[in-house]
Amino acid sequence: MTALALMLQGTGSDVGKSVLTAALCRIARRRGLSVAPFKPQNMSNNAAACPTGGEIGRAQALQARAAGLAPHTDMNPVLLKPQSDRTAQIVVQGKALHAMEAADYMANRDQLMGVVLESFDRLTAAHDLVIVEGAGSPAEINLRDRDIANMGFARRAGVPVCLVGDIEKGGVIASLVGTRNVIDTKDAAMIRACLVNKFRGDLSLFDEGVTEIETRTKWPCLGVIPWLPAAGKLPAEDALVLDRLPAPSGKTLKIAAPMLSRIANFDDADPLKLEQGVAFSWIPPGQPIPRDTDVVILFGTKSTLGDLAFLRAQGWDHDIIAHARTGGRVLGICGGYQMLGRRISDPYGVDGEPGDAPGLGLLDVETVMTRHKDVRPVTGVCATTGRETSGYVIHAGRTAGPGTDRPFVRFHDEADGAHSPNGRIAGTHLHGAFSGNAFRAAWLEQAGYEGQSSLDYDAVVNNALDELADGVEQAVDIDALLKLAEKPGWRRKA
After folding, report:
1. Which of 214, 355, 415, 447 has its C-alpha lying 20 to 30 A from 13's C-alpha?
2. CATH-assigned architecture of domain 4-233+463-483
């Protein structure tokens, strides 16, 4: 089997490529096709653990779910996880290698093209259709040399492109036409059509806009996609948004989470945000944690020591310690768990700059960062709720100390995390636990939630994927779009 392939590129970041790729995967699956997602290079601190080992961007894991597949490292062979303004950890085919300066990576990224094509080749050999997602924009011509994420990949692999523009940002005509005008002729020839995404209001008002785009670019516009509310029920890829959700009526459980500078895997919060009786809020830098908060959650981070310093700079350390001393609950997940301990040491600079610092001292544990990275799905029983839970771990470092005699969760072969004698302070490396309905309901009850959770989170995500696919299918000429897909042209020269 050699799959047909089609690539979605965008006029910029956050135009909806990831969501549209998920929608097309679900549409193709519903049409009886074996379909797989593929993103040559992603940059995100939101990662997912694959059942066969290794990690990929969570957006590709969601796309795999839309396609009815388990996530696999071939779906995202190069993942960049920023740990400072200038450095990122390089993950290749699921395995973390080392941190690299941005300039060094840009100068040497073409060396990874072989790895990218190797993964792509395996996917095309196993499926009928591969939907490829680009990164950023092909109009960033200053980054075109040695590109593996957009036109560099499309030209090398011989994959046709559909260009996506975001009308919500404004200037969608200029962004589509401008992209056509700044990229070189051979790159432009790879683009066979375009889409306009996130339209609000009367679609007929943009008919003239479509005509202008088609006239000026010579690309057919295969659809103007309205704003689809279902997208808001899906995990965000890499942009933490301050959601302004309506305040729940009646008695509520108030949960606050500081927005760390390198926060990672913050989609752990998504099920909590959907609970009817939970008022969840992200606390932006510079703002104190509200005194009436019931639970503070410290999420994971790609730079534990760096974000511990960032947390202290906001004064959140005093807020959290005061909250704990007055009987409030605190939960730390992954890097957040490590911050709750007595000390964090990173002698090798595994997670940022080398160094060590005292933690918040709320749990009797200490963490030493090691070069080994633990990445795997896990299942176990929570020691505080007694409920079975599953998720994944994805962390560096070894956390030990007397506090671990009271673990948060017991996996089949080991214990993880810690909790205080009264159970109000807890930490764990376990991600994804709140997606489990039984565990989440038990944890909320333990935290003081007086309602009864009726949320089926898996059903919410699956229904959202179906609604998204329905909306895209109504707005886009899917038959024409899928006809653009071709067998990859492996001998095509870049």
Report:
1. 214
2. 3-Layer(aba) Sandwich (3.40)
According to the model, what pLDDT value does residue 102 have?
Answer: 66
Q: How far apart are CA 140 and CA 148, in angstroms?
A: 13
- pLDDT tens column, 139-165: 999 989 999 999 999 999 999 999 999
Active-site residue identified among 127, 334, 382, 395: 334
Identical fold between 4-233+463-483 and 253-450: yes
Q: Which residues contact 111 (CB under 8 A, 6 or more apart)?
A: none
Each residue's pLDDT tens digit, 162-173: 999 999 988 999
Q: Where are the domains of the chain?
A: 4-233+463-483, 253-450
What angle separates helix 58-66 from helix 457-475, to the nearest 10 degrees? 80
**25 has catalytic annotation:** no
Structure tokens at 90: 């390089």
The dihedral through the CA atoms of 436, 438, 439, 443 has a sign that is positive
State how far the alpha carbon of 468 is from the alpha carbons of 26, 76, 164, in Å.
Answer: 9, 22, 16
In this structure, whether the domain defined by 253-450 belongs to CATH 3.40.50.880 is answered with yes
Crossing angle of helices 457-475 and 437-447, rounded to 10°: 120
pLDDT tens digits, one per residue of 265-314: 999 999 999 999 999 999 999 999 999 999 999 999 989 999 999 999 99
Round to whole Å and give the CA distance between 409 and 274.
Answer: 24
The verdict on whether 334 is a catalytic residue reads: yes
Tokens describing residue 294: 């019931």
